[in-house]
Structure formats: C-alpha cells, structure tokens
Design brief:
two-stranded antiparallel sheet, 334 residues, 13 helices, mainly alpha
Length: 334
C-alpha cells in the first residue's frame, strides 16, 4: 500500500477550482484591451513588424522575470538582479571573443556566465538562511557584491564582443523572430515545467502559502529556498548574456533597469508579493502588459517621461486589486 507523507500532502498543488477567478483572468483581459485600444489609435502599432518588435523587446525581461517569480512565490523579494546581471555580463564579454584579451571560449563562456549568476543566487539563499534577515536586505547586499565584481572586471575599459554566434542571438531571425525571443520562450516553458511538475516548484508555492506548516510536516525548507535563489540567479545570468548580445558589449549597467521591472511585471501579471499565488505564466502576461504599454505609448506619441509614472500607477492598481480579496484574513496593514 502506498503511503503519502505529510510533506507531500502539504506541498501538493491544490485542485483547481471550477471557473476562472478575476485575479487570474484580469491581466490577460487587460492585455487584450490595451492591444485593441492601441491598435485603434495607431496604425503602426498593429503591424506585424511592431508585433515582432514587442516580443523581441520582451525577451530579456521575460527571462529575468521567470527568476524573480520563483522567489516571489516563496513570499521573498529578490533585489539582486542588477548586480548579478552586471557580473555575468562582464564575465561573458571577457570570455567570448572580444577586444580586451585573446579569450575565445564560445559557448563555454556563456555557460560560465550563467553559472556565475547561479552562484551569486546561491549566495543569496545561503546568507538568507544563515543570517535570518529579510530577503530584500540580503539580496541587496549580494547585488552590491555582483556590482563590485563587475567593476573590477570592467577595469575602466569596455569589452566589446566579436563572437559571431553570440551576436547572432540578437540579429538573426527564425520564423520572423530573433533567437532572443525563442530563448525567452524556452525559458518560460522550462520555468512553467519546473513550477508545475517538480518538487522545487510545489515547495515554492507551499513556502509562500504556509512555510510553518511545511516545516512541521518534516520538510527541510532551507535547501529548497537556497535552490530557488540559485535558479533565479541562473535566469539572471542568462538574461545578462542576452543583454550583452543586444548591446554588443559587456556593461556594468546591463541589469540596471531589470530589478524593478521584473518585480513589476510579476505583480502586474498576478503573482502576489506575499507568495503562494501566481506563477511563470502569470508573470509572462505581466511582462507583455508592460512592454505593450510602453510600445503603445511611444506609438501614439506620449512623452517617455510619463511612461515610468504610468507603470508605477499600474503596479499600485495591480497590488491593490490582488490584495483586496485577502483583507478579510488580515486586518493589519504592514
């Protein structure tokens, strides 16, 4: 007779409810409405070329957001993306063919850069478990470490890449889309598979939903938390390689805008900051919402100075909408 352990009972995914809640349907509906509105306002927006540009522009953010999503599912906040991406970007630029040295490690250089991102993510998880301090403080410190590594490697001279294979990621197209878009699609698929079918994904939900119950069931939570941060770091590292392909050079500022943008996209898509709800597909919809909104505002001639404010307003509305159904559980605002 097969016996199910308490840990498996706690970590098992809840059975889906009949119908679709507004929180799940809201972001996709909003995406469709925004697309329709901008299509009516701008003929250029509804062209095939612009659609390709939107997906290409969303590729790096989608990969970074995959990593941030797993951390958010646990109810943690990861602010290390900028530093991790900076270190990985400079590393890959110095390991593939470039103007600074005689290195030409090719694909191995990419693997090393992604591994460095995973190592920094692992460091975040280990420090979180060892120091027992809020995740945003630990990851902010790791971001500073990553930036320090990047500045040391940069050494005041920008490394420009000359690796044809890496450059082709941003220039060559398959079925009308750049390789970056296809890489992002594969990452989203892999992220969803991890979330849906692996113990790591199930435990990420469980930690965000009821970590104490999971621990009392006999599960050692710490290794899974470290594994989630390591996975997130790997996604950040790959995102840095993609940015380097786009820019043709390794820059310390490669990930400067992605920490806030990835969290914004995840929250807008329906992944809760408190953890336990949402996922990779939800966050991907959020990425598309942000990118389509930015693209559409440009197409209709709205000043870029307004775009940050509009994104911030959307985040506030999205957080308020997600938190509204939970207010009856917790009357204390923290």
């Amino acid at each position: 007779m097969t016996v199910t352990s308490p840990a498996e009972v706690v970590a098992a995914r809840p059975q889906p409810r009949r119908g679709v809640s507004f929180r799940d349907a809201g972001p996709p509906i909003a995406l469709v409405v925004i697309v329709i509105v901008f299509s009516l306002l701008s003929a250029q927006f509804r062209t095939l070329g612009n659609f390709q540009n939107i997906l290409d522009a969303a590729s790096v953010l989608a990969v970074v957001t995959c990593g941030a999503t797993f951390v958010l599912l646990m109810g943690s906040i990861d602010l290390s993306a900028a530093g991790v991406m900076a270190a990985s970007a400079i590393t890959v630029a110095l390991l593939v063919e470039n103007n600074r040295n005689g290195n030409d490690f090719g694909f191995l250089g990419i693997v090393i850069a992604v591994a460095l991102g995973a190592a920094l993510g692992c460091l975040s998880g280990v420090l979180l478990m060892a120091l027992k301090v809020p995740s945003f403080m630990v990851t902010l410190g790791v971001s500073a470490i990553g930036l320090g590594i990047a500045i040391l490697l940069f050494a005041g001279v920008q490394p420009n890449i000359a690796d044809a294979a890496l450059e082709s990621w941003a220039t060559d197209r398959l079925l009308g889309f750049t390789y970056l878009t296809w890489i992002a699609a594969v990452c989203v698929l892999v992220g969803w598979l991890i979330q849906r079918y692996t113990r790591l994904g199930r435990y990420a939900f469980a930690v965000g939903g009821a970590e104490e119950v999971l621990a009392l069931s006999g599960v050692r939570v710490a290794p899974y938390k470290v594994a989630v941060f390591t996975l997130a770091g790997a996604f950040y590292g790959l995102g840095a390689v993609m940015v380097t392909s786009q820019l043709g050079a390794g820059l310390v500022q490669a990930g400067a805008d992605f920490t806030f943008s990835s969290i914004t996209a995840a929250v807008v898509g329906g992944t809760l900051l408190t953890g336990g709800r949402g996922g990779v597909l939800h966050s991907t919809v959020g990425v598309l919402l942000i990118v389509v909104l930015t693209n559409g505002l440009v197409q209709i001639g709205v000043s870029p100075y307004w775009q940050g404010g509009v994104q911030g307003l959307i985040v506030v509305i999205a957080v308020a909408a997600a938190a509204a159904p939970l207010r009856h559980r917790n009357q204390v605002v923290k």
